[in-house]
Every structure is written in structure tokens, then in C-alpha cells.
Amino acid sequence: MKRVVPLAVLPLLAGCLFGGGASSRVEKVPEEFRSPRVAVPRAPDRHAYGDLSKVSTGAWVTMREGGRLLTLAAVAAEGDARWIEVIEEGEPRQVSARLVGPDGVVRKAYYGEISRDGRKTPVESQTLEQSDSAAAPHLAESGREVGEERVVVAGKELRARRVSVRFEDLEGRLTQDVSLWSREVPPIYAGGEDGGLVRRQTGSALVELVDFGSDARPLLAIPR
Asked: Of the candidates 129, 159, 179, which is a domain's last residue?
């Protein structure tokens, strides 16, 4: 004798056979899993770059340090301090916004990342850590030559002052430092009476200017 399965039962059987029911419901993914928090690096408690008293708000430079591209931008003033964004170029861009006092002390810092498509991670507070204060090896200057040179950076011809200095350490080993400086370059990375740094070569280590300008705007929205 054949049994006839009622039509109303068929959808229930199909759900059991093909994984239906409550176990197959699509749940909403919590926001913290869709946008995971980034690992926030520590920030130094002192500004390791140029004298900010000689830097105007809006000034920025991009420097190449070996295979690393680093942008420094003076994006805002707050009382007697400056907000400086230190930007590690890459994918994503890593941005550290630091409030730096006139004495070079970093009062507070925030961190965020920006993807190539413009997406930004939430801005997080950075823990400050003591800057590396290891003393540099003692070097005595043994010779200096100064001249003028013209260089082109990002399509801009600059008149630069060339300074070549020879140093000798306690064991008699010689090192030569050759640097170019221009008054047209903001001294936010490094600077002096000859202007901002254009290029510096010390042994095999090379730092050089890639681009610069005066129109910097904040990349991070700092919590208030």
C-alpha cells in the first residue's frame, strides 16, 4: 500500500534535506568584525625632526629614506603648539598626528590608516614612549667645503647650498657627509640657516626630497 505524503509537508522535508531552517539564517555581522581595529603603534614623546618655530602651517615635504617614503605636514596650530602629521606612504597610508610643543615635546598623538580607495580606519589615541636617546658616536670635523648647486625636484628648479663635511672618529676612520639645502624648501624635516633639506648622503645612507608644498590639510579628524 502506497503512502501519500501531504503537499503541506513537502516544504518542511525539503528544508531538512537541504540545510534549511534556523541553522541557515544569515545573521548581521557586528560592526567591530566588519571594521576591525588596527594595531596602533607607539609614538615618540619628542619630535625627531626640524625646528617647528621656522615652519608655517600648511607646509609639507615628502622625503625618501632608502625604500621608505615619509611625508611630514604642519596641518594646524593649537595655542603655542603645532599639529604635525607624520605619514608613512604605502597601502594603506599610516598617519600619526602629533601635537608638538615649542620645546619639541609631543603632548598627545593619534593614529589612523587610509586605504587607496579613501577608506579610513577609526582614529585611535597613541601611547607615547620615550625617544631613543642613545648618544651618537663622537666625530671630529676634519674638513669642510661649501658651494652652490642647482637641482630639480618634482619639476621645480631649486638653488641649493652644498655642504660637504669630513668627520674623523676616535679610531681615525673618516666619514663624509654631503648635504644640499634650499631656502625654498620648508625646514619641517630638517633645516637651518640655509633652508630645508634637499638631499643628504652619509656613506651609503641617502635621504632625498621628493616633493614639497604649502597647502597641507589634516588627513585625520582628531577627537575633541
From this structure: 129
Long-range Cβ pairs for the range 80-84 (8 Å, 24+)? 81/107, 82/52, 82/55, 82/57, 83/218, 83/222, 84/47, 84/49, 84/52, 84/188
Cβ–Cβ under 8 Å, residues 149 and 160 = yes
186, part of any domain? yes
Note the pLDDT tens digit of each residue in 181-192.
999 999 999 998
Does the global pTM surpass 0.85?
Answer: no
pLDDT: is 34 or 218 the higher one?
Answer: 218
Domains in the chain: how many in total? 2
Verify that 99 and 169 share a domain, yes or no: no
CA angle 34, 37, 39 (to 5 degrees): 145
Residue 86 in any domain: the answer is yes
Report the alpha-carbon distance of residue 96 to residue 74 in Å, rounded.
12
For the stretch 130-146, pLDDT in tens is 977 555 566 777 778 89
Residue range of the domain that includes 65:
43-129
